[in-house]
Specification:
This protein is an alpha/beta fold. The chain has a domain of about 230 residues: Rossmann fold, CATH 3.40.50. It is about 45% helix and about 15% strand. It has a 7-stranded parallel sheet, sandwiched between helices. Helix 6 links the parallel strand 5 and strand 6. The radius of gyration is 20 Å and the shape is globular. The termini are far apart.
Length: about 350
């Protein structure tokens, strides 16, 4: 069995679904079920004995101790995190509590459990920490892409909290010998993405006839990684990654935000035309930029390809088409996740822009 934390969120749920589609090894899934954690993401696993779900916090030390002793996982994959930059600007304390304090308590609980294992199981055990390219800071248009050797220069409360968690994971290796792995990924997109992030927000707003908000000049550049590719990378790192190593996971898809928005509009024009015959691009609205908005992130994913033979299967063109089609075919899911709390958040973030 493996323990997955944050396995009801966007990336975590995709990982759990993909894992159990490819393996009969059971998953113990621990998720706090905050705004982004959604049991509906895991609906295909209802009644599946291979999937054990527990609602709980990675910061709950007694719960962790009990779960680890009872289920005896051979590995932990840590997705649990507060992950939205704008939310971190409005309320940084939750990010420190989950991403820093929570990660520390998870590491402590896992270390105590790991030390009780027989020597052979202790040697095979892995703790894989899923992090972000945002810990590296921002790049100029001419800078080379982030490698694993870039120093950490986080610029938002979110990325600072993730950088802190990365440092803690490293420290638990060097101080206590816990066999850890870290992955730093670029911007994920795909099915089950909570509709406050750029791509799902644009799809949902476009279909609702609402403005499509673009920060500043829209020329902020990101590398885009289809979530199923990210899941395959994590499986590969868990299986063959070298203990203590960091692996950057990217899609080799650097694009400015405005191009992303226009691509989605074009796909919707094709797949779900507006009743008035107009283009969704007419709904694009430029809004006040995010404070301290990083201009460019880019991942150099050469190391994971060179050492582990992994590279993404999707281009941006194929991945974004699959994503738009998924949202068109799963409107009931979108409706259910758009709770009152979500609507209040969108109002808070965009009302004065």
């Amino acid at each position: 069995m493996i323990l997955v934390t944050g396995g009801a969120g966007f990336i975590g749920a995709n990982f759990v679904l993909d894992w159990l589609a490819r393996s009969d090894e059971p998953v113990l899934n621990l998720d706090k079920l905050t705004y982004a954690g959604n049991l509906e993401n895991l609906a295909p696993l209802q009644g599946d004995a291979r999937h054990v779900f527990v609602q709980g916090d990675i910061g709950d030390a007694p719960l962790l101790e009990r779960l680890l002793a009872q289920h005896r996982p051979r590995a932990v994959v840590n997705f649990a995190a507060e992950s939205h930059v704008d939310r971190s600007i409005h309320g940084p304390e939750d990010f420190i509590q989950t991403n820093v304090v929570g990660t520390m308590r998870l590491l402590q609980g896992v270390r105590a459990y790991w030390q009780t294992l027989p020597e052979s199981e202790r040697a095979d055990f892995r703790f894989l920490h899923v992090s972000t390219d945002e810990v590296y800071g921002s790049l100029s248009p001419t800078d080379p892409a982030f490698t694993e050797n870039n120093k950490l220069e986080p610029n938002s409360p979110y990325s600072a909290s993730k950088a802190a968690s990365d440092h803690l994971v490293r420290a638990w290796l060097h101080t206590y010998g816990l066999p850890v792995l870290t992955t730093n990924c670029s911007n994920n997109y795909g099915p089950l993405h909570f509709p406050e992030k750029l791509i799902p927000l644009i799809i949902v707003n476009a279909l609702a006839g609402k403005p499509l908000p673009v920060y500043g000049d829209g020329l902020q550049v990101r590398d885009w990684l289809y979530v199923k590719d990210h899941c395959s990378a994590i499986r590969r790192v868990l299986a063959a990654g070298r203990v203590g190593e960091i692996y950057n996971v990217g899609g080799w898809n650097e694009k400015p935000n405005i191009e992303i928005v226009k691509t989605i509009c074009s796909l919707l024009d094709e797949l779900r035309p507006r009743s008035d015959g107009g283009s969704y691009q007419t709904q694009i609205t430029y809004v006040q930029d995010r404070p301290g908005h990083d201009r460019r992130y880019a991942i150099d994913a050469s190391k994971i390809e060179r050492e582990l033979g992994w590279k993404p299967a999707e281009t941006f063109a194929t991945g974004i088409r699959k994503t738009v089609q998924w949202y068109l075919e799963n409107q009931a899911w979108v409706t259910h996740v758009q709770s009152g709390a979500y609507r209040e958040w969108v109002q808070t973030n965009y009302a004065d822009r």
